[in-house]
């Protein structure tokens, strides 16, 4: 009974409040006008709903009801905040008087003139043109010119410094190891060929290892212990007739095979302990440090104008193969990696010369994008070049005007290869250039590039 009385009293109070609100709303239009009445109506109803829930009994034990009440309160508050404000009107003492422009302040020396201008002078409006949307072609060219183009003076100085270091290293090897027939050192890498440079900061230094073809032969990669066609072994032959010691390279034999690992270890010791790099650096106006902890043969060079990283690669050229002393990680130490870099660069330039194409331009952009992106950096270099070469066999239009189309098509091709987990080499289809990628890396690259197909600008954002 008491509960019924309380509810009834509440309804009466609500009825009284409702009557007051109805009366207020009925007269709002006369006082405030149509827009003001709308504003007052929305705000009043929202406040009334808040009062109703504040005076209604709460379901103490029902968390869903409490959550619902809280959400409704947020909605009501948002409704009040979102209520449109009526336009401000200029105040007038007499509503019957016309609205006049504000009086201009008197200039010193000017007499007061009671005349009223019939119409105010309008300030001319400057029409601001909307920002022009750049095409993908324009964005690619802008990205290249702003981020990928290395200043010619910087590149020239870096190459000059690298050649000077190359000459110093050549002199040392000739004096320290005259019995080893090393060929003439030469520079290589993107800084010379310009297909994947973000900065003039890295150079490859190639050290030819000259072998007597009568004493050495190549073992195909399929017949090696790793069953990988990209890795080869160099076997010492005819030991019965030409015993060990006949070749100066026999000191690096491990199990009748020329060990790339043994050769690298010897050169590493020379770079770290035998060469007087402080003296050479002082002569060249720079500071040179061999990287001790790296398995690669690396030098870090610091100069006032550039910071340069130089990687030394012993290289064997036999039977039209170019093999680098870059064995895979693990216990295998006799393997030599077949390099297609020279053939890649030559083929791309040959195709561009034949049809005035933009393959090199496209590769520079792709390499720059992938190298600067943390998820895609392993795609830069050789894999991208081979995709472009594969695509050139089916797409003949590589004019500069088609750069955006070819760029997007390369992304689509890459996604297709990543889905299969196989990117065959352009020069040897048995070789899978994705064989050393982890499954997680392939998934991450594929997801990123799949998004970039519909929105290529994702790859061009500043990192």
UniProtKB/TrEMBL annotation:
The keyword Cell inner membrane does not apply. Residues 359-445 form the Mab-21-like HhH/H2TH-like domain. Residues 156-344 form the Mitochondrial dynamics protein MID51-like C-terminal domain. Keywords: Membrane, Mitochondrion, Mitochondrion outer membrane, Transmembrane, Transmembrane helix. It is a single-pass membrane protein. It is found in: Mitochondrion outer membrane. SMART domains: Mab-21 (SM01265). It holds the Pfam family MID51-like_C. PANTHER family: MITOCHONDRIAL DYNAMICS PROTEIN MID49, MITOCHONDRIAL DYNAMICS PROTEINS 49/51 FAMILY MEMBER. This is MID49 protein. It comes from Calonectris borealis (Cory's shearwater). The gene is Mief2.
């Amino acid at each position: 009974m008491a509960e019924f009385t309380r509810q009834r009293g509440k309804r009466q109070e609500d009825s009284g409040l409702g009557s007051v609100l109805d009366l207020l709303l009925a007269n709002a239009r006369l006082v405030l006008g149509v827009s003001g009445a709308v504003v007052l109506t929305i705000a009043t109803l929202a406040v009334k709903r808040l009062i109703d829930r504040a005076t209604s009994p709460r379901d103490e034990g029902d968390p869903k009801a409490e959550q619902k009440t809280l959400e409704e309160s947020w909605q009501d508050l948002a409704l009040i905040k979102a209520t449109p404000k009526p336009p401000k009107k200029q105040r007038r003492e007499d509503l019957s008087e016309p609205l006049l422009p504000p009086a201009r302040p008197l200039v010193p020396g000017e007499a007061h003139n009671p005349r009223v201008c019939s119409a105010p002078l309008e300030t001319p409006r400057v029409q601001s043109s909307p920002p022009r949307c750049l095409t993908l072609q324009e964005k690619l060219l802008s990205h290249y010119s702003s981020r990928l183009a290395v200043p010619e003076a910087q590149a020239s100085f870096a190459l000059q410094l690298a050649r000077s270091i190359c000459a110093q290293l050549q002199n040392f090897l000739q004096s320290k190891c005259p019995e080893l027939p090393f060929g003439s050192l030469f520079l290589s890498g993107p800084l010379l060929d310009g297909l994947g440079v973000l900065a003039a900061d890295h150079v490859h230094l190639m050290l030819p290892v000259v072998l007597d073809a009568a004493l050495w032969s190549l073992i195909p990669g399929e017949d090696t212990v790793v069953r990988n066609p990209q890795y080869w072994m160099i076997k010492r032959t005819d030991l019965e007739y030409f015993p060990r010691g006949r070749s100066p390279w026999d000191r690096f034999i491990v199990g009748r095979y020329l060990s790339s690992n043994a050769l690298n270890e010897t050169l590493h010791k020379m770079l770290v302990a035998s060469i007087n790099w402080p003296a050479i650096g002082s002569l060249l106006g720079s500071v040179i440090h061999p990287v001790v902890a790296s398995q690669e043969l690396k030098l870090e060079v610091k100069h006032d104008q550039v910071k340069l990283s130089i990687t030394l690669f012993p290289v064997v050229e036999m039977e039209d193969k170019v093999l680098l002393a870059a064995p895979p990680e693990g216990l295998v130490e006799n393997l030599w990696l077949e390099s297609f870099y020279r053939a890649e660069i030559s083929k791309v330039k040959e195709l561009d010369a034949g049809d005035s194409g933009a393959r090199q331009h496209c590769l520079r952009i792709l390499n720059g994008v992938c190298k600067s992106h943390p998820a895609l950096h392993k795609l830069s270099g050789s894999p991208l070049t081979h995709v472009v070469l594969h695509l050139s066999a089916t797409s003949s239009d590589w004019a500069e005007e088609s750069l955006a189309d070819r760029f997007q098509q390369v992304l689509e091709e890459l996604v297709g290869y990543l889905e299969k987990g196989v990117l065959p080499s352009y020069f040897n289809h048995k070789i899978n250039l994705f064989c050393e990628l982890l499954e997680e890396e392939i998934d991450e690259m594929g997801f990123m590039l799949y998004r970039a197909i519909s929105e290529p600008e994702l790859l061009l954002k500043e990192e």
